[in-house]
Structures are given as C-alpha cells and as structure tokens.
Specification:
The chain is mainly beta and 179 residues long. The chain contains two helices and eleven strands; from the N terminus they run E-E-E-E-E-H-H-E-E-E-E-E-E. It has helices at residues 82-85, 91-101, and strands at residues 4-10, 16-23, 26-29, 37-44, 71-78, 121-129, 132-136, 141-144, 149-153, 157-160, 167-175. The strands form three sheets. A six-stranded antiparallel β-sheet has the order 3-4-5-11-6-9, with no helix packed on it. Strands 8-7-10 form a three-stranded antiparallel β-sheet, with no helix packed on it. Strand 3 and strand 4 form a beta hairpin. The relative contact order is 0.18.
C-alpha cells in the first residue's frame, strides 16, 4: 500500500510553500511475512526547529524508534496472526528481514515471546482499518476497532491480529527518557 505524503516548508522569502507531494518513500511490504507492511512517513530529531531543514529525514533515519525528544510517524499493516502460524512461515528469515527493514525497532522484539516488545517512547496509535488486540505483559488484552486510539506509555506489549483480514494502524512515536 502506498501513502501520499504532502510536506510543507518555507520559501527563501519566508512564505509557506508545498515542498513535496508524492508517495512516502520508505514503505516496505515484507517478503517473509506476507501482508506485513511498514511505512515511515516522517521523523524529527530531538530539538527540531522550524523552518525545518531541506530534505527527507526518512531516507537517512537510523532507527524506527526516535531518540528522546524526537518523533516518528508511521503506518503499519499487520497481517492476520495465522500468517505466522503457517507451516511455510520461517521465523529466522522473518527476523532477518525485520532487522534489515526496521533498524532500532526490530532489536526490541523478544525472541522468547513473539511480538512482545518495549520501547522508550510514548506512542499514539489510531486503528485505521481492521481489528487488532493489544496485549500487555500480564496477558491482559483489549480489542480495538477502527478509530480507537491507544496511548502506549513505554509499556511491554504486542499487537495481535486474531481476524482473517489485515489491520492498519497509524502510529506517532515520541522518544522519551525511561526512569
């Protein structure tokens, strides 16, 4: 799936202008996890200023998890959990692909508890389409429907798609310090 990204900025005279209007450049449909799609839309570094520097920060973003004070906005499409339960699913190949495509985030996933992860971020998640279940480390879950919003405060969690259709969420991650 492709997302249109419109970016505004400033002309040399200080007037607001459209800097770009195109498909977001950092979208990946995973080969080893069919139906899993991630798209990094934008990123800001800690201490961001406006007018912003020229260029596309997603092209050089070293991590899908922002530093404290930085932000990332992304879409994630989760395939049904049945994809990972298929006899043809290879967790080693999928893990390698995660490491390549999602640097900084892939390392947060727990090998012994598939899907569980913790980041030093406050995440705002909005379910756009489909159905997802948010699982916390005690096993408690909440079912999400379209337009439900989750504020994830750096807790250990996993996203579960128990349906037979993909589910897409929009996430804004705000990097934070853990105390």
């Amino acid at each position: 799936m492709s997302y249109r990204r419109i970016v505004t900025g400033h002309s040399p005279a200080g007037k607001s202008v459209f800097m770009s209007d195109a498909a977001a450049p950092r979208g990946t449909a995973f080969k080893h996890v069919p139906g899993f799609v991630t798209t990094l839309i934008w990123e800001t570094q800690p201490g961001a200023t406006v007018p912003a520097a020229q260029g596309d920060p997603t092209v050089t973003a070293p991590s899908w998890v922002p530093q404290a004070g930085g932000t990332n906005v992304m879409f994630v499409t989760f395939p049904p959990d049945s994809v990972m339960m298929s006899p043809s699913f290879n967790p080693m190949e999928a893990g390698g692909e995660y490491m390549q495509v999602l640097p900084g985030l892939a390392e947060k996933f727990e090998m012994d508890n598939p899907g569980m992860h913790t980041t030093d971020t406050v995440d705002y998640g909005v379910l756009i389409e489909g159905e997802l279940h948010l699982e916390l480390d005690d096993g408690e879950t909440k079912k999400l429907s379209p337009r439900d919003v989750v504020i994830q405060n750096g807790t250990r969690h996993a996203w579960r798609n128990k349906s037979d259709r993909p589910a897409t969420m929009l996430f804004v991650l705000v990097g934070a310090h853990r105390r």
